[in-house]
Design goal:
The protein is an alpha/beta fold and 422 residues long. Helix content is 37%, strand content 25%. Strands 1, 2, 10, 11, 12, 13 and 19 form a 7-stranded mixed sheet that branches. Strands 8-7-15-16-17-14-18 form a 7-stranded mixed sheet, covered by helices on one side. The protein has a 3-stranded antiparallel sheet with strand order 5-9-6. Strand 7 (86-89) and strand 8 form a beta hairpin. Helix 1 (13-24) runs parallel beside helix 8 and helix 6 (148-162) crosses helix 7. The radius of gyration is 23 Å and the shape is globular.
Protein backbone atom coordinates (compact mmCIF):
# COMPACT_ATOMS: atom_id res chain seq x y z
CA UNK A 1 0.00 0.00 0.00
CA UNK A 2 1.27 3.44 -0.95
CA UNK A 3 0.88 6.39 1.42
CA UNK A 4 0.60 10.14 1.10
CA UNK A 5 -0.48 12.89 3.43
CA UNK A 6 -3.11 14.24 1.03
CA UNK A 7 -4.56 12.33 -1.90
CA UNK A 8 -6.34 14.37 -4.57
CA UNK A 9 -8.69 12.60 -6.95
CA UNK A 10 -9.34 14.35 -10.25
CA UNK A 11 -6.94 16.32 -12.46
CA UNK A 12 -9.24 19.11 -13.54
CA UNK A 13 -8.43 22.68 -12.61
CA UNK A 14 -9.65 22.21 -9.04
CA UNK A 15 -7.39 19.21 -8.46
CA UNK A 16 -4.39 20.83 -10.14
CA UNK A 17 -4.87 24.04 -8.15
CA UNK A 18 -5.10 22.04 -4.90
CA UNK A 19 -1.90 20.15 -5.73
CA UNK A 20 -0.01 23.39 -6.41
CA UNK A 21 -1.26 24.97 -3.20
CA UNK A 22 -0.25 21.93 -1.15
CA UNK A 23 3.26 21.64 -2.57
CA UNK A 24 3.75 25.37 -2.07
CA UNK A 25 2.93 24.78 1.60
CA UNK A 26 5.54 22.02 1.79
CA UNK A 27 2.97 19.23 1.99
CA UNK A 28 3.35 15.74 0.54
CA UNK A 29 0.51 15.30 -1.94
CA UNK A 30 -0.41 12.95 -4.78
CA UNK A 31 -3.00 13.51 -7.49
CA UNK A 32 -4.58 10.59 -9.34
CA UNK A 33 -6.69 10.84 -12.48
CA UNK A 34 -8.67 8.08 -14.18
CA UNK A 35 -8.16 9.32 -17.74
CA UNK A 36 -4.91 9.49 -19.65
CA UNK A 37 -4.98 13.28 -19.94
CA UNK A 38 -5.00 16.22 -17.57
CA UNK A 39 -7.47 19.06 -17.30
CA UNK A 40 -10.75 17.20 -16.87
CA UNK A 41 -13.30 19.02 -19.02
CA UNK A 42 -10.70 21.67 -19.93
CA UNK A 43 -9.72 19.90 -23.11
CA UNK A 44 -8.86 21.17 -26.56
CA UNK A 45 -9.64 19.80 -29.99
CA UNK A 46 -8.48 20.21 -33.56
CA UNK A 47 -10.71 22.20 -35.92
CA UNK A 48 -8.94 22.74 -39.22
CA UNK A 49 -5.49 24.09 -38.34
CA UNK A 50 -6.64 25.27 -34.92
CA UNK A 51 -6.09 23.51 -31.61
CA UNK A 52 -8.46 25.39 -29.35
CA UNK A 53 -10.89 25.07 -26.49
CA UNK A 54 -13.91 22.88 -26.98
CA UNK A 55 -16.47 25.64 -27.08
CA UNK A 56 -16.09 29.21 -25.78
CA UNK A 57 -14.13 29.67 -22.55
CA UNK A 58 -12.74 32.79 -20.90
CA UNK A 59 -10.83 33.65 -17.73
CA UNK A 60 -12.19 36.52 -15.63
CA UNK A 61 -9.15 38.71 -15.00
CA UNK A 62 -10.43 39.85 -11.61
CA UNK A 63 -11.36 36.41 -10.31
CA UNK A 64 -9.87 33.75 -8.05
CA UNK A 65 -8.33 31.81 -10.92
CA UNK A 66 -6.28 34.75 -12.18
CA UNK A 67 -5.30 35.69 -8.64
CA UNK A 68 -3.92 32.23 -7.87
CA UNK A 69 -2.27 31.85 -11.26
CA UNK A 70 -0.48 35.11 -10.56
CA UNK A 71 0.58 33.79 -7.15
CA UNK A 72 1.90 30.69 -8.94
CA UNK A 73 3.92 33.10 -11.12
CA UNK A 74 2.27 31.77 -14.24
CA UNK A 75 2.14 34.55 -16.80
CA UNK A 76 -0.78 34.19 -19.19
CA UNK A 77 -0.81 35.62 -22.68
CA UNK A 78 -3.80 36.10 -24.90
CA UNK A 79 -6.32 38.75 -25.77
CA UNK A 80 -9.01 40.80 -24.07
CA UNK A 81 -12.09 41.05 -26.31
CA UNK A 82 -12.97 44.62 -27.10
CA UNK A 83 -16.35 45.93 -26.10
CA UNK A 84 -18.00 46.07 -29.55
CA UNK A 85 -20.66 43.39 -29.37
CA UNK A 86 -23.86 42.99 -31.34
CA UNK A 87 -27.34 41.98 -30.34
CA UNK A 88 -29.45 39.72 -32.53
CA UNK A 89 -33.22 40.15 -32.43
CA UNK A 90 -35.06 37.86 -34.82
CA UNK A 91 -33.13 38.15 -38.07
CA UNK A 92 -31.82 41.64 -37.34
CA UNK A 93 -28.42 42.48 -35.89
CA UNK A 94 -27.49 45.79 -34.30
CA UNK A 95 -24.66 47.05 -32.05
CA UNK A 96 -25.29 46.56 -28.36
CA UNK A 97 -25.03 49.78 -26.34
CA UNK A 98 -21.83 50.19 -24.35
CA UNK A 99 -22.44 53.73 -23.10
CA UNK A 100 -25.07 56.45 -23.15
CA UNK A 101 -24.22 57.66 -26.66
CA UNK A 102 -24.41 54.18 -28.18
CA UNK A 103 -27.64 53.58 -26.24
CA UNK A 104 -29.13 56.66 -27.86
CA UNK A 105 -28.03 55.59 -31.33
CA UNK A 106 -28.89 51.87 -31.26
CA UNK A 107 -31.90 50.65 -33.22
CA UNK A 108 -32.37 47.62 -30.97
CA UNK A 109 -34.54 49.57 -28.55
CA UNK A 110 -37.49 51.91 -28.68
CA UNK A 111 -37.42 55.30 -26.97
CA UNK A 112 -39.33 53.84 -24.00
CA UNK A 113 -36.83 50.95 -23.78
CA UNK A 114 -33.93 53.38 -23.78
CA UNK A 115 -35.46 55.46 -21.00
CA UNK A 116 -35.92 52.39 -18.79
CA UNK A 117 -32.38 51.18 -19.50
CA UNK A 118 -30.92 54.58 -18.70
CA UNK A 119 -32.86 54.65 -15.43
CA UNK A 120 -32.10 51.06 -14.37
CA UNK A 121 -28.58 50.33 -15.64
CA UNK A 122 -27.15 51.46 -12.28
CA UNK A 123 -28.95 48.51 -10.64
CA UNK A 124 -26.79 46.11 -12.62
CA UNK A 125 -23.61 48.08 -12.16
CA UNK A 126 -23.93 49.09 -8.51
CA UNK A 127 -26.15 46.64 -6.60
CA UNK A 128 -23.92 44.85 -4.04
CA UNK A 129 -24.02 41.20 -5.13
CA UNK A 130 -23.91 39.93 -1.53
CA UNK A 131 -27.20 41.70 -0.81
CA UNK A 132 -29.11 39.64 -3.39
CA UNK A 133 -27.37 36.26 -3.34
CA UNK A 134 -30.58 34.57 -2.23
CA UNK A 135 -32.80 36.44 -4.71
CA UNK A 136 -33.71 34.62 -7.91
CA UNK A 137 -32.75 36.07 -11.29
CA UNK A 138 -36.31 35.82 -12.59
CA UNK A 139 -37.79 37.55 -9.55
CA UNK A 140 -35.23 40.36 -9.73
CA UNK A 141 -35.69 41.01 -13.45
CA UNK A 142 -39.49 40.98 -13.22
CA UNK A 143 -39.40 43.31 -10.23
CA UNK A 144 -37.16 45.96 -11.82
CA UNK A 145 -37.49 45.76 -15.61
CA UNK A 146 -40.88 46.14 -17.23
CA UNK A 147 -40.16 46.50 -20.96
CA UNK A 148 -39.82 43.32 -23.03
CA UNK A 149 -36.57 44.25 -24.73
CA UNK A 150 -34.89 45.51 -21.56
CA UNK A 151 -35.74 42.23 -19.86
CA UNK A 152 -34.28 40.40 -22.83
CA UNK A 153 -31.07 42.40 -22.53
CA UNK A 154 -30.66 41.61 -18.83
CA UNK A 155 -31.27 37.90 -19.49
CA UNK A 156 -28.67 38.10 -22.28
CA UNK A 157 -26.14 39.54 -19.84
CA UNK A 158 -26.96 36.85 -17.29
CA UNK A 159 -26.41 34.07 -19.84
CA UNK A 160 -23.19 35.66 -21.06
CA UNK A 161 -21.70 35.96 -17.58
CA UNK A 162 -22.88 32.68 -16.03
CA UNK A 163 -23.60 30.40 -19.04
CA UNK A 164 -27.12 29.99 -17.68
CA UNK A 165 -30.22 32.16 -17.74
CA UNK A 166 -32.30 29.90 -15.50
CA UNK A 167 -34.82 32.09 -13.62
CA UNK A 168 -33.99 30.34 -10.32
CA UNK A 169 -30.30 31.27 -10.52
CA UNK A 170 -28.90 33.64 -7.92
CA UNK A 171 -29.02 37.19 -9.26
CA UNK A 172 -26.13 37.98 -6.92
CA UNK A 173 -23.91 35.49 -8.75
CA UNK A 174 -24.76 37.14 -12.06
CA UNK A 175 -24.14 40.66 -10.76
CA UNK A 176 -20.81 39.66 -9.24
CA UNK A 177 -19.64 38.21 -12.56
CA UNK A 178 -20.94 41.17 -14.56
CA UNK A 179 -19.36 43.76 -12.29
CA UNK A 180 -16.05 41.89 -12.20
CA UNK A 181 -16.02 41.51 -15.98
CA UNK A 182 -16.92 45.15 -16.52
CA UNK A 183 -14.08 46.30 -14.27
CA UNK A 184 -11.30 43.89 -15.25
CA UNK A 185 -12.39 42.23 -18.49
CA UNK A 186 -11.88 38.62 -19.51
CA UNK A 187 -8.94 36.88 -21.16
CA UNK A 188 -8.98 34.45 -24.07
CA UNK A 189 -5.79 32.52 -23.30
CA UNK A 190 -3.24 31.58 -25.94
CA UNK A 191 -3.16 27.82 -26.46
CA UNK A 192 -6.47 27.31 -24.69
CA UNK A 193 -7.22 25.79 -21.32
CA UNK A 194 -5.57 22.44 -22.01
CA UNK A 195 -2.21 24.22 -22.29
CA UNK A 196 -2.91 25.91 -18.96
CA UNK A 197 -3.67 22.57 -17.32
CA UNK A 198 -0.36 21.16 -18.58
CA UNK A 199 1.50 24.16 -17.16
CA UNK A 200 -0.15 23.74 -13.76
CA UNK A 201 0.79 20.06 -13.73
CA UNK A 202 4.40 20.78 -14.71
CA UNK A 203 4.72 23.40 -12.00
CA UNK A 204 3.40 21.08 -9.30
CA UNK A 205 5.60 18.13 -10.25
CA UNK A 206 8.67 20.39 -10.44
CA UNK A 207 8.01 21.30 -6.80
CA UNK A 208 7.67 17.68 -5.67
CA UNK A 209 4.02 16.90 -6.27
CA UNK A 210 3.15 13.58 -7.86
CA UNK A 211 0.57 12.94 -10.58
CA UNK A 212 -0.60 9.52 -11.77
CA UNK A 213 -2.92 9.28 -14.77
CA UNK A 214 -4.88 6.28 -15.98
CA UNK A 215 -5.68 5.23 -12.38
CA UNK A 216 -9.29 4.35 -11.66
CA UNK A 217 -10.61 4.73 -8.10
CA UNK A 218 -13.32 2.27 -7.11
CA UNK A 219 -13.87 2.95 -3.39
CA UNK A 220 -12.89 5.26 -0.53
CA UNK A 221 -13.12 3.97 3.03
CA UNK A 222 -12.77 6.10 6.15
CA UNK A 223 -10.71 4.49 8.90
CA UNK A 224 -9.57 5.59 12.34
CA UNK A 225 -6.29 7.06 11.13
CA UNK A 226 -7.35 8.31 7.71
CA UNK A 227 -8.56 6.78 4.46
CA UNK A 228 -7.94 3.72 2.35
CA UNK A 229 -8.47 4.44 -1.34
CA UNK A 230 -8.92 1.40 -3.57
CA UNK A 231 -7.72 1.74 -7.17
CA UNK A 232 -7.03 -0.61 -10.07
CA UNK A 233 -3.34 0.12 -9.51
CA UNK A 234 -3.25 -0.85 -5.85
CA UNK A 235 -4.42 0.78 -2.63
CA UNK A 236 -3.49 4.13 -1.15
CA UNK A 237 -3.63 5.32 2.43
CA UNK A 238 -3.99 9.03 3.10
CA UNK A 239 -4.57 11.27 6.08
CA UNK A 240 -7.05 13.32 4.07
CA UNK A 241 -8.66 13.18 0.63
CA UNK A 242 -9.73 15.96 -1.71
CA UNK A 243 -12.39 14.90 -4.22
CA UNK A 244 -11.98 17.20 -7.22
CA UNK A 245 -14.62 15.34 -9.23
CA UNK A 246 -18.33 15.60 -9.93
CA UNK A 247 -20.74 15.48 -6.98
CA UNK A 248 -22.25 12.19 -8.14
CA UNK A 249 -18.84 10.55 -8.49
CA UNK A 250 -17.88 11.85 -5.05
CA UNK A 251 -20.96 10.25 -3.52
CA UNK A 252 -20.56 6.99 -5.45
CA UNK A 253 -17.00 6.57 -4.15
CA UNK A 254 -17.74 7.35 -0.52
CA UNK A 255 -21.41 6.76 0.21
CA UNK A 256 -21.28 9.87 2.40
CA UNK A 257 -24.75 11.14 3.35
CA UNK A 258 -23.90 14.80 2.84
CA UNK A 259 -22.47 14.11 -0.61
CA UNK A 260 -25.67 12.21 -1.40
CA UNK A 261 -27.70 15.29 -0.59
CA UNK A 262 -25.36 17.66 -2.41
CA UNK A 263 -25.30 15.50 -5.54
CA UNK A 264 -29.08 15.81 -5.86
CA UNK A 265 -29.14 19.53 -4.99
CA UNK A 266 -26.98 20.71 -7.89
CA UNK A 267 -28.10 21.06 -11.49
CA UNK A 268 -25.44 20.97 -14.23
CA UNK A 269 -25.13 23.48 -17.07
CA UNK A 270 -24.73 22.24 -20.65
CA UNK A 271 -24.29 23.98 -23.99
CA UNK A 272 -24.78 22.89 -27.58
CA UNK A 273 -21.66 24.18 -29.36
CA UNK A 274 -20.59 24.48 -32.96
CA UNK A 275 -16.94 25.35 -33.63
CA UNK A 276 -16.38 26.45 -37.23
CA UNK A 277 -13.09 27.07 -39.06
CA UNK A 278 -13.33 29.61 -41.90
CA UNK A 279 -10.73 30.99 -44.27
CA UNK A 280 -11.98 34.47 -43.33
CA UNK A 281 -14.95 36.31 -41.90
CA UNK A 282 -17.41 37.71 -44.44
CA UNK A 283 -17.91 40.64 -42.03
CA UNK A 284 -14.63 41.05 -40.10
CA UNK A 285 -16.06 43.65 -37.72
CA UNK A 286 -18.47 41.22 -36.12
CA UNK A 287 -16.48 39.36 -33.50
CA UNK A 288 -19.05 39.11 -30.69
CA UNK A 289 -22.82 38.73 -31.00
CA UNK A 290 -25.48 37.52 -28.58
CA UNK A 291 -29.11 36.56 -28.98
CA UNK A 292 -31.69 38.92 -27.51
CA UNK A 293 -34.82 36.83 -27.99
CA UNK A 294 -33.05 33.46 -28.24
CA UNK A 295 -30.35 32.01 -25.95
CA UNK A 296 -27.56 32.12 -28.56
CA UNK A 297 -23.87 33.06 -28.46
CA UNK A 298 -21.27 33.90 -31.14
CA UNK A 299 -17.61 34.84 -30.79
CA UNK A 300 -14.34 34.67 -32.70
CA UNK A 301 -11.76 33.84 -30.05
CA UNK A 302 -9.01 33.30 -32.64
CA UNK A 303 -9.00 37.05 -33.32
CA UNK A 304 -7.82 37.63 -29.74
CA UNK A 305 -5.81 34.51 -28.82
CA UNK A 306 -3.29 32.27 -30.58
CA UNK A 307 -4.50 28.71 -31.23
CA UNK A 308 -1.69 27.63 -33.53
CA UNK A 309 -3.13 28.36 -36.98
CA UNK A 310 -1.23 30.68 -39.32
CA UNK A 311 -4.34 31.76 -41.19
CA UNK A 312 -8.10 31.58 -41.03
CA UNK A 313 -10.50 32.15 -38.14
CA UNK A 314 -12.23 29.94 -35.59
CA UNK A 315 -15.83 30.80 -34.76
CA UNK A 316 -17.70 29.59 -31.69
CA UNK A 317 -21.50 29.52 -31.73
CA UNK A 318 -23.49 28.08 -28.86
CA UNK A 319 -27.05 27.40 -27.72
CA UNK A 320 -27.54 27.88 -23.98
CA UNK A 321 -30.52 25.53 -23.73
CA UNK A 322 -29.68 22.37 -25.72
CA UNK A 323 -32.63 20.15 -26.55
CA UNK A 324 -32.55 18.12 -29.75
CA UNK A 325 -29.09 17.77 -31.39
CA UNK A 326 -30.30 18.03 -34.98
CA UNK A 327 -32.53 21.01 -34.25
CA UNK A 328 -29.79 22.72 -32.21
CA UNK A 329 -27.26 22.35 -35.01
CA UNK A 330 -29.69 23.84 -37.52
CA UNK A 331 -30.43 26.70 -35.12
CA UNK A 332 -26.73 27.49 -34.73
CA UNK A 333 -26.11 27.42 -38.47
CA UNK A 334 -29.11 29.70 -39.03
CA UNK A 335 -27.79 32.05 -36.33
CA UNK A 336 -24.44 32.15 -38.11
CA UNK A 337 -26.32 33.06 -41.30
CA UNK A 338 -27.57 36.19 -39.53
CA UNK A 339 -24.27 37.19 -37.93
CA UNK A 340 -22.00 36.25 -40.85
CA UNK A 341 -24.03 35.99 -44.08
CA UNK A 342 -22.36 33.81 -46.74
CA UNK A 343 -20.09 32.13 -44.19
CA UNK A 344 -20.46 28.86 -46.08
CA UNK A 345 -18.42 30.34 -48.94
CA UNK A 346 -15.41 30.38 -46.59
CA UNK A 347 -16.08 27.12 -44.80
CA UNK A 348 -13.15 24.76 -44.00
CA UNK A 349 -14.51 22.38 -41.37
CA UNK A 350 -16.49 22.29 -38.14
CA UNK A 351 -17.17 20.25 -35.03
CA UNK A 352 -20.53 20.04 -33.27
CA UNK A 353 -20.87 19.21 -29.56
CA UNK A 354 -24.56 18.59 -28.86
CA UNK A 355 -24.19 18.56 -25.07
CA UNK A 356 -21.01 20.09 -23.70
CA UNK A 357 -20.84 20.19 -19.91
CA UNK A 358 -19.88 23.73 -18.86
CA UNK A 359 -20.38 23.44 -15.11
CA UNK A 360 -21.48 20.83 -12.62
CA UNK A 361 -23.83 23.36 -11.01
CA UNK A 362 -25.72 26.45 -12.01
CA UNK A 363 -25.59 29.27 -9.44
CA UNK A 364 -26.77 28.30 -6.88
CA UNK A 365 -28.48 25.36 -5.23
CA UNK A 366 -30.61 26.10 -2.19
CA UNK A 367 -27.95 24.58 0.06
CA UNK A 368 -24.47 25.96 0.62
CA UNK A 369 -21.85 23.39 -0.39
CA UNK A 370 -18.64 23.70 1.59
CA UNK A 371 -15.16 22.44 0.76
CA UNK A 372 -15.04 20.47 4.01
CA UNK A 373 -17.55 17.59 4.08
CA UNK A 374 -19.11 17.87 7.57
CA UNK A 375 -20.09 14.21 7.94
CA UNK A 376 -16.66 12.69 7.20
CA UNK A 377 -13.61 14.08 8.98
CA UNK A 378 -10.69 14.65 6.63
CA UNK A 379 -12.80 14.55 3.46
CA UNK A 380 -12.89 17.62 1.20
CA UNK A 381 -14.42 18.54 -2.16
CA UNK A 382 -13.37 21.04 -4.80
CA UNK A 383 -14.79 22.04 -8.14
CA UNK A 384 -17.12 24.42 -9.91
CA UNK A 385 -20.03 23.10 -7.80
CA UNK A 386 -18.47 23.97 -4.43
CA UNK A 387 -18.90 27.21 -2.46
CA UNK A 388 -20.85 30.41 -2.98
CA UNK A 389 -18.06 32.95 -3.39
CA UNK A 390 -17.39 32.16 -7.07
CA UNK A 391 -18.69 30.23 -10.07
CA UNK A 392 -17.25 28.42 -13.10
CA UNK A 393 -13.43 28.40 -13.34
CA UNK A 394 -13.07 30.74 -10.38
CA UNK A 395 -15.04 28.29 -8.21
CA UNK A 396 -12.56 25.54 -9.10
CA UNK A 397 -9.66 27.62 -7.80
CA UNK A 398 -11.43 29.17 -4.81
CA UNK A 399 -12.79 25.82 -3.59
CA UNK A 400 -9.33 24.25 -3.95
CA UNK A 401 -7.98 27.12 -1.86
CA UNK A 402 -10.70 26.57 0.75
CA UNK A 403 -10.01 22.84 0.95
CA UNK A 404 -6.25 23.28 1.28
CA UNK A 405 -6.73 26.11 3.78
CA UNK A 406 -8.91 23.86 5.95
CA UNK A 407 -6.33 21.07 5.81
CA UNK A 408 -3.46 23.35 6.82
CA UNK A 409 -5.53 24.98 9.59
CA UNK A 410 -6.40 21.57 11.00
CA UNK A 411 -2.75 20.55 10.99
CA UNK A 412 -1.76 23.77 12.75
CA UNK A 413 -4.42 23.11 15.39
CA UNK A 414 -3.14 19.57 15.91
CA UNK A 415 0.41 20.88 16.38
CA UNK A 416 -0.74 23.50 18.87
CA UNK A 417 -2.70 20.90 20.84
CA UNK A 418 0.36 18.67 20.90
CA UNK A 419 2.55 21.52 22.15
CA UNK A 420 -0.04 22.37 24.81
CA UNK A 421 -0.17 18.78 25.97
CA UNK A 422 3.59 18.74 26.39
Amino acid sequence: MQHTNTLIIGAGFAGLAALNLLVDAGEHAVLIEKSAHLGGRAQGHVVGDFFANIGPRAIYRGGAAMRLLTEFQMQLTGGIPRNSAYGVLGNEIHPLPADIMSLIKTRLFSVADKIELAQKISLIRNTPPESVMDVSLGEWIDGHFHRLHTRQLVRLLARLNTYSGHPDNSVGAFLRQFQMGSKHGVLYADGGWSALAERLASRATAKGGKIATGVHVSHIQRQADGFVVTTDDGNWSASQVILAISPKMAYDLTGDETLCRWSTAVEPVDLACLDVALTQLPNPNRLLAFGMDKPLYYSVHSEFANFGAKSGVLVHVAHYQPTDPQADKQTLEAYLDVVQPNWRNYYITSKFMPKMRVSQARPYSSETITAQVPTTDGLYVAGDWVGRDAILLDACFSSAESAVGAILAKQDQTVMQSVGAD
